[in-house]
Amino acid sequence: MCEPVLYYFPFQGRGEIIRYVLAAGNISYKEVNDVSNYKEDSPFGQLPYVEIEGKRIGQSNAIAKYFAKKAGLLGKNDLEELEITSYADFIVYDCIEDSLTKFAPIYYDKNVTEEQFNDIKNVILENYATKMETLDKVVKGDFLLGDQMSLADIALAYCYSWGEVLLPDGFKAKLSSRINSIAEKVFEQKYLKEYISKRVIPVIPPRPT
Amino acid sequence: MPEYKLYYGKGKGYGELSRMLFALGELEFTDVRMEDGDEKTKLINNSPYGANPNFEIDGVMYGKNVAIARYVAKKVDLYGKTDIDQLKTDAIVDYVYQDIAGKLLSIYFEKDEEKKAKLIEEGKDFVKNTAVGKLEKQIEGENTFLASGLSWADVAVFNFFHDLYTPFFKEDAFEGSPILKKHSEHVASLPLLKKHLETRAVTEF
């Protein structure tokens, strides 16, 4: 059985949730960063995508879920999986993707001044932090949904990767200590900690000048 | 057998995929369709996800339309049999309900008429010139995405384009795609789905 191959830019970006799950599950894989032809090669013309058993599959959230199952991060039964995936979806789509859709156009537009950029950025990220805060009411144990780490916690940690870059001055301060401590526990997970200590790629490319 | 209750507004929207899957599996559930008002607002505000649909299984509430629909798909044996096939269906459903639907939703809420008109043209262009072609290539079976047969991915694509895209953009996204047209016709002709389409409440979206 050959290893899965992850195709993504040499950035954390949307690939990072997959890398976190692979790391947490100690699953070996190859990575390809020369993705210049991705619009043709990728199943939906987007990145990231993976090649597993000869098949190319896209959609980072779906891919993360596939590996999460292999890593034992989807709970013990269908009801637990429903709960875990619903929160993973909420975090990835309602918190992160919703913010990125608004953030990306202004980040990559060099005609937006640094001052304008910061103003708009803060509005977007307040929204992001407010949504993340609703998770505080959900916490059921050592982790978000109980005492076992799940994909929902990985999604939460993935949020921090974006949050720290997009709102460097005060992202964590906006969230509850309970949520912050869950993220910390995820980052302390043996294999994930090792992955992060060796990681060199930044979250996103620098702003165009 | 567990008791299932699906809470949504009066329309088809993001609740309809689950309703179709229940119909295809002849699985009983309570279809709670709420008028706009205090009760609906209270449910949404109490939901950690801040939205409908919400899904009650033996008294416990769950949320998020795709996660719910996946659960129902599993119960009616429309999720696919292997991990890879299931992943493939997950990718298709996410592409349709998060990527494509996400674009549509932002257009729907755009208040600036001029900007809205531009977004509508961009949306149509994206769907017809990119999304449709990519979805066509995903079909591996006889009018099904999976070689092994019908799955929730087929129902999702049918539901989204038939019930949301076409009424909103007032045109058929599959006009230039005989493959997806045939796919849609096949899904619509499945006896249990056909019956559902004929008997369900008529709403704009």
Structure, described:
The complex is a heterodimer of chains A (209) and B (205). Chain A is 54% helix and 7% strand. Chain A has 209 residues and is of the alpha+beta class. In chain A, helix 1 crosses helix 6 (151-166), helix 4 packs parallel to helix 6 and helix 6 (151-166) crosses helix 7. The radius of gyration of chain A is 17 Å and the shape is globular. With 205 residues, chain B is α+β, with helices and mostly antiparallel strands. Helices cover 58% and strands 9% of the residues of chain B. Chain B has helices spanning 16-24, 38-46, 65-75, 83-108, 113-137, 152-169, 178-189, 191-199, and strands at 4-9, 30-34, 54-57, 60-63. Chain B has a four-stranded mixed β-sheet with strand order 2-1-3-4. In chain B, a hairpin with a 2-residue loop joins strand 3 and strand 4 (60-63). The mean pLDDT of chain B is 95. Classes of the chains: A alpha+beta (209), B alpha+beta (205). The A-B interface holds A 43-46, 52-53, 55, 57-59, 61-63, 65-66, 69-70, 78-79, 81-83, 85-87, 89-90, 93-94, 97, 101, 131, 134-135, 137-138 and B 48-51, 57, 60, 62-64, 66-68, 70-71, 74-75, 83-84, 86-88, 90-91, 94-95, 98-99, 102, 106, 130-131, 134, 137-138.
SSE map:
The complex is a heterodimer of chains A (209) and B (205).
Chain A: E1 5-7, H1 16-24, E2 30-32, H2 38-41, E3 49-52, E4 55-58, H3 60-70, H4 78-107, H5 114-134, H6 151-166, H7 177-188, H8 190-198
Parallel strand pairs in A: 1-2
Antiparallel strand pairs in A: 1-3, 3-4
Chain B: E1 4-9, H1 16-24, E2 30-34, H2 38-46, E3 54-57, E4 60-63, H3 65-75, H4 83-108, H5 113-137, H6 152-169, H7 178-189, H8 191-199
Helix pairs in contact in B: 1-3, 1-6, 4-5, 4-6, 6-7
In short:
The complex is a heterodimer of chains A (209) and B (205). Chain A is built from 8 helices and 4 strands; from the N terminus they run βαβαββαααααα. Chain A is of the alpha+beta class.
